[in-house]
Amino acid sequence: MDTTKTLPILKSLRKEEWTELEAFLQSPYFNKDVTVVQLFQILKDMFQQQSGPLKINKEAVAKLLWPNRPYSAKTFTYVLSKLNKLTEHFLALERMQQSAFELQLAAINVFSERNLLKNYRAEKRALQKSLKESGESEFLLFKAQARLAEIEDLHYVRQKRRVHDISIQEAAHLVDCSYYLQRLHQACSMLDRQHILQANYELALSEDWFNHLRQHLAKQPPIIQLYLFIFQMLNDEEQEAHFQELKDGLQEHHSDISPPDLTTIYQFAVNYCARKIRAGREPYVEEALQLYLTAIEAGWFIINDELSPWTYANVVKLFLRQQKFEEAKAFIHQYLPLLPDRFRDNAFHYNLAELYYYTNDYEQAQEHLIQVAYEDLNYYLGARVLLAKIYWQTEAEDALSSLLAAFIMFLQRNKQLSKNLKNTYLNFCKILARILRTPTEKRAALKSTITETSPLTDRDWLLNTLST
Q1: What angle separates helix 309-321 from helix 325-334, to the nearest 10 degrees?
Q2: Average pLDDT, integer, range 268-296
Q3: How high is the pLDDT of residue 2?
Q4: Quick check: 130 and 104 in contact, CB under 8 A?
Q5: pLDDT the model gives residue 178
Q6: Which of 5, 157, 224, 291 is 20 to 30 Å from the Cα of 347, by its Cα?
Q7: What's the mean pLDDT when you consider all of the chain?
Q8: What's the CA gap between 277 and 264, in Å, rounded?
Q9: pTM above 0.70, yes or no
């Protein structure tokens, strides 16, 4: 039973959803089978009593449901499947109810069909107010506005009034806006991922298509203008003027863009800066830092009251790269409470260790590194590399040799790491071990090995060791 779909979907429920689902199952409108309710209550009790992974004996549960009947796998599976379907239905309805636009649009359409004109006009005004004040992304707003215009056009047809009406024109314009925005976003995402995943996507958008947008750019909503700037920036990354166009557009239009859209736009800009930094364009360190700080302080990078630990670490690294050590320390402490609970301790100790490493306080750095938990592979890998660098800086050759040997063994035996990630760290360990064994006067010969090896972490640092 633990391999069915039912247990995972129940496990995913939040605390309040257990109560809401129970009320849903007890409603005769949705469910008239009391056995389904009884099965749910049995499983609910078992989930609440079990602290670890839940494994259930089907026959034991069936005995609780039908104490005087022999076990029937077919009957039990039927009830279990019905519970699963109803739970899926419940979650889908919950999601629909969270999107007021969907329900309001459906209601407006029904009122039009039934010729309930007062209800139609009142609900339409309410929806128009919701659209104006919602703060939702432009993707959702354009779709909802286009759907409303389509319903208004249907309403015009149903009324059979031969007077001029612009709803069909508005519907066409809004469908165009929704289409342009969706395709631009997809194209930008493809270009962005190509740089990360080394994949090739087919954009399937002609130059004429883009020329049409450029020629009518002033008539397009600000969000479409910004996405066109993003596309140009990503499509021709050597032309840095496109990045400036995006910055200027954000400064001019940021008050017209919803927070969810600003989150995505700033992430595109940050990713672009990161690639420039890796290519050696040092001015983009400050550009990336300011983008991060603006998005964090405005709340655009804080999702569900949480800051990503990777965003947290990236900002710290940018501060350290600019030797802004006090600012880095202040940031570490200021935003620590916003990190997800499961990452908080590791993120705190790892980033403080990096800070102390940059300020040559290797003793403090090591004290924080030993508090990074082994279970979190991302932080553990980074902590091992940082500790190796500390041992090199402090000329602790025996400790470094032991660390590299243990790290190599760990990487070779670990089955959770992808092949690419494993090789990234294995290559670092093997090259550093080779440098350690090579006399100082002969280390320069290893430069080509470092520059040509891929994948490899901390390439620049390894190159610097050749001259120390």
Answers
A1: 170
A2: 92
A3: 43
A4: yes
A5: 86
A6: 291
A7: 90
A8: 20
A9: yes
